[in-house]
Amino acid sequence: MKNVAISRGTELQLAGMGVGPLYARLAEARLVEALADTPVVLIHGPRQSGKTTLAQVVGKRLGHAYFSFDEDVTRAAATADPVGFVGDLPERAVLDEVQRVPGIFNALKSAVDRRRGPGRFLLTGSSNVLLVPALADSLAGRIGILRLHPLAQCELDGNAPRFLDRLFDGVFRARRAERLGRALAERIAAGGYPAALERSTPRRRAAWYRDYIETLVQRDVRSLARINSLDAMPRMLALAAGQTARLVNISDLAGPFKLSRPTIRDYVTLLERIFLLEELSPWHSNRLSRLIKTPKLHVGDTGVACALLGLDAASLWEDRPTLGQMLETFAFQELRRQASGHEEEIRFFHYRDKDAVEVDIVLERGPGRVAGVEVKAGATVTAADFRGLRKLKAAAGRRFAAGVVLYDGEVGARFGDDLFAVPIRALWEGTDS
After folding, report:
1. What is the pLDDT of residues 288-345, one digit of tens each?
2. Which of 372, 328, 324 is nearest to 348 (CA)?
3. CB-CB contact of 216 with 210 (8 Å)
4. How do residues 232-257 score in pLDDT, each as one tens digit?
5. Which of 9, 194, 303, 330 has the fewest CB atoms within 10 Å, counting from its CB?
6. What is the CATH number of domain 8-147?
7. Where are the domains of the chain?
């Protein structure tokens, strides 16, 4: 796996274009690889996660002209005459926020079919445009898709990500590490959105996150669906933030509102579509018959979640139950973000049986390897904390690679074959684990 650095020349060019601070993104190598053999490549993910910057970084290097459908004139021209607009494009082009002109997909298909060279169009989208029927029907077999998340902790710190490889290799060495303590709560509350992290104080970051949610509701949610109760959406999202890392319970989410369960279910789906919420599917095995089949709910970023709940790092640190939930979501999102740049596909699940034995995060790499990660906010680990991981190991059999309890402690240690306690900072630090 490579952590591709941004060249100094590209950095200076982009600074002249008004692009903010740059981070080497884990997904960049996968993007360049896809553009080398695929006519159309889509980067999708939440607004302000860095899609435009990444597209400009790579597009500038490869000779793509840049067009944004957030610009009124460009969007109006493409909407009025998508065939003519695409026909006038240069050989290589970046089309930013493509979900705003869904009629353009058929025109892109025709252009690609006439001249099917690799890397012709680099698209970005801030909603899950895979759900747009026109895209599914028109660009199947012609498009490569990459998910871009907000910044991972290893991207922020400039570290090469090694945790996933060590997890699937089952190699964690005994080590000592300084406990993070309150610094861990600060990382959780800060989140991973580049524009929020530019703010000078936690109060200003929280204000950015609140404004961000308001903008998404008024702009993207309104454009995607006709919703009569837009004012209920931020309140429901705050309620969902309080339930992060718990099993999805639509009745609990519907309780405070005069809305039906099907309506709330639609709202959750809509918030997933703009990457604010994510449902983590349950892991299944033919060896086990008493597994819970309900997905888990995770907020897309802990900075958003803390802002919605009015929590700064200090108050989060004092609220231990909420800290535990947020830490689980924080670890899950860090793993997801690191996996986006991994050479092999990694799929994510959770494990829970009817005896309430669980593993917070189950990972599958390829057809043959399964690993588990349990997350603890405490500073100690005991053998009892591996109960769920032992069940997962028994169910996975020879497919089991390793089970890890991440905790905010000082000692990395083995707790049996393929079972390890690991300080949580090893999740993103480049030091030997």
Report:
1. 667 888 999 999 999 999 999 999 999 999 999 999 999 999 999 999 999 999 989 9
2. 372
3. no
4. 778 888 999 999 999 999 988 888 88
5. 9
6. 3.40.50.300
7. 8-147, 153-427
